Amino acid sequence: MNLLPWPSECASGSAEPASLPQRRAWERRLSAALGSEHPATPHTERLPTLKAAQRSAGTGLGCPGSAYIGLIELLIPKERAFAPGMNQVSLTPSHIINRNVGLKVEGSSFTLDGFPFLIIAGTIHYFRVPREYWRDRLLKLKACGFNTVTTHIPWNLHEPRKGWFYLTANLDFMTFIAMASEAELWVILCPGPYIGSDLDLGGLPSWLLRDPKMKLRTTYRGFTKAVDHYFDKIIPMVVQLQYGKGGPIIAVQVENEYGSYHRDNRYMSYIKKALITRGIKVLLMTADNGDELTRGHLKRDYGALLTENGERTTEYLAYQEFFSSSLGIHKPPNLDSIPMAVYKSVVTEYYMSLWDVMPYLEEPISSVKPICMEELSVNQGNGQSYGYILYETVITTSGLLTAKNHVQDRGQVFLDENFLGIFDRSTDQLTIPRKMVYNDNPRLRILVENQGRLAYGQDINKERKGLIGDIYLNKSPLRNFKIHSLDMKTKFIQRDLPNIWKPAVFKHRGPAFFLGILRIGNDPRDTFIKMEGWTKGVIFINGKNLGRYWNIGPQETFYLPGPWLRPGSNEIIVFEEFKPGLEIHFTNISRLGY
Phi and psi for 18 in degrees, rounded to 5? Predict the structure, then answer.
């Protein structure tokens, strides 16, 4: 992803390196650019960028999906405007007191308040890092040699319900930006509305899809009305953190990689105007491949400079050394590692089956036809965003059950409590044996899992989940459903689940909740959970959704931040879909399968 000044096309780019040899070639090229003269040209050359990212270990820090730790962005003029060893120590938030023009494009270079400025930016997503570790991650970014942090604002997390904004705790982006300034880092802010970032629907809230005519990322009135309302809340907060007002924000990104979507020629101008009219005065940038600005698309490299628990990788040390030797950036002493712990394995001594739980939950929604998650009348009229959804209907005959690709994304099928099979992308038909229809009104149950909406692409307008159309039995559409929302949010675990736990004296088969207690001392520390022996499900720690596990891999461990734990007893609840394990194990070694 290239950051290009808006609206000038003053940079060109190429695909990001995806291997260590390519990174070495990139380093050599950068060294050459810094160490030798180049003929002056009317544009800056955009060197290949490395997106240092890592797949999430299901931390549940805001959302499912993957977590970015660092994104290296270097903008170098083709005529060597920055000599090796050039000292930019004075161009930091605390040193520039009298602020005038801010970040500008001067010919083929960037300047900050009139001084030549080299942007070395790394991405940290505040919503994917425990708030207690924000300062640690920012200081490590600075210690590696970066002078700027890029961060994105996820609309779907800040406004999960229309008109209900969440801006505290792990979503307090103003405090994160203030911490960045204290760490002597400038900020490039990406407020969206679409931010990509491997987030569900690219960071757009799923309640937008309640409109059957919705056209995301266009000037469709239903979309722009929602964007305007969101920006009216968020942008005034951003305005006071801009460079000219003494804040660290030196640039704002307009949308994200719209060239690969490009469904409305007026859209980017609309977003630009929406930002400016609400008070954004810093440099506006767009994110696309400079060679294909109108249809941009880039490869990605998923190698992180920091691990999910904040440890420095070999890549981190290599870049730190490179920045020090080639750019003359001071290399400070390494920060201490955050201590890890290996706790004693936890036995899940109690359980309750999903079928035992159902009578205690909120009244189901009755509907003649299936209703998808987004259109359910739950969550104060905003529909369901994540989790599972259970459909029940009575059948009177056996035969062939056909989904016609209407199960999104994965559905377990039961007749009463008896497992029949799975609907997924590879299985679209199941047979209900005659012997199983043993009474006058057996209940057909379809437990559908939302495995995450697309983060990008032309099909994001279609990303509705659950049953998105009819299910057929012997070519006749099924009717008269009872629909249960199982969103697996904190409220569901802490308040909706009944206290009807039973001793787990045998290994229950089928969807069920399992309870175990982790007892620790007065100093909770980071650890990794290992679900060896378990099949597929979701882990909750003290009511918080840690993430999903599946024994098909590749991920084997799940990062559990120390701040999520408390001295004494910690409640672990596991929703297991099939077959549980005997214990929950802990380790201090991450195993992500790559």
Answer: -120, 10
